[in-house]
Amino acid sequence: MKLAKLAAAAGLQAFALAGCYVVPVGPDGHYAIYIPSQPSPYPGGPVQPVAQPGLPKVLHARLYPENDVATQTGMVAGTVTNMMTGKGRFQLQYAGELLTGEATRVSGDDRKGIASAWGPSGAFMSCEYQMHTPMQGAGTCNFSNGARYKVHLGN
Q1: What torsion do the CA atoms of 95, 100, 106, 109 make, to the nearest 10 degrees?
Q2: What are 103-112's pLDDT values in tens digits?
Q3: Measured between alpha carbons, how far is 122 from 124 in angstroms, rounded to an integer?
Q4: I want to staple 127 with a disulfide (CB 3.0 to 4.6 A). Which of 16, 17, 95, 115 is the partner?
Q5: 130 bridge partner residues
């Protein structure tokens, strides 16, 4: 009897997720489920397409020193995972520490954005950037130790 219940539960889950994509988003274990279409409201009618955001895309972030404090650490590299929703996850190694945070587009201007990241020791950074295309942009980042960098986003 338990085996029949287990099989029914597994079958129900498979049926519920049929036609969906489960896409891993980041190392923090978050994921997204994308449903490519929605059944017709009328039996036997055509399938209704559903507007879904694009799949997440990873952009490389390269930060180049702009003052003496930043020159002591040198160039810094990281990634921004663009969720294609106006938000993204930002991650970089700075002075031996992993800083993580988010990037968000500014309301009313899809090209401008801000990014913030924080590390376990209390180090933090703030950036302002402007996207020139959906996959490339540039801006400025300031760190809690006074370091200032030019940031280039994109591949």
Answers
A1: 80
A2: 998 888 879 9
A3: 6
A4: 115
A5: 112, 138
- Cα separation, 37 vs 35, in Å, equals 6
Q: Do the strands 48-49 and 76-82 form a parallel or antiparallel pair, or are they unpaired? A: unpaired
AA letter at 154: G
CA–CA gap between residue 53 and residue 134 (Å, rounded): 13
- String of DSSP letters for 9-67: HHHHHHHHTTT-EEEE--TTS-EEEE--EE--SSTT-PPEE---PPPPEEEEEEEEE-S
